[in-house]
Amino acid sequence: MSTYQHKVQYYETDRMGITHHSNYIRWMEEARTDFLDKIGFNYAEMEAKGLSSPVIGVKCDYKASTTFDDIVEIKAYVLSCTSAKFVVGYDMKKDDKVVFKGESTHCFLDNSGKIIRLQKELPHFYDVLCKNQQENAV
């Protein structure tokens, strides 16, 4: 599990003074990128090798609101991993109170858009993702 912090910016709030719902998905991406960096799989390096990891699904469950200047702690972790795709879970908290729970599902593609089977073509990455999933299943 990886922890990432985001400080809510003024431009991320709406006319009511609360964070617009679309920003939570952006924060998921920030936390996921940070998580992958921490486990040794930097997005820029993967893209330089001709790999991409598109989002193929998103689930969001908004529990409470956040406002300008709040510090949101985001935990990112692997919920599931198969050879074809993986799912990242996100728990967002403000002052130890859950404000958001989400998931994003991803696959990996090569330059031609062909799906890459992680277990076969990126076995070390597959193993690291599966290990993270097992650690968070406890």
TrEMBL record:
<comment type="similarity">
    <text>Belongs to the 4-hydroxybenzoyl-CoA thioesterase family.</text>
</comment>
<dbReference type="GO" id="GO:0047617">
    <property type="term" value="F:fatty acyl-CoA hydrolase activity"/>
</dbReference>
<dbReference type="InterPro" id="IPR050563">
    <property type="entry name" value="4-hydroxybenzoyl-CoA_TE"/>
</dbReference>
<protein>
    <submittedName>
        <fullName>Acyl-CoA thioesterase</fullName>
    </submittedName>
</protein>
<dbReference type="InterPro" id="IPR029069">
    <property type="entry name" value="HotDog_dom_sf"/>
</dbReference>
<dbReference type="Pfam" id="PF13279">
    <property type="entry name" value="4HBT_2"/>
</dbReference>
<keyword id="KW-0378">Hydrolase</keyword>
<dbReference type="InterPro" id="IPR006684">
    <property type="entry name" value="YbgC/YbaW"/>
</dbReference>
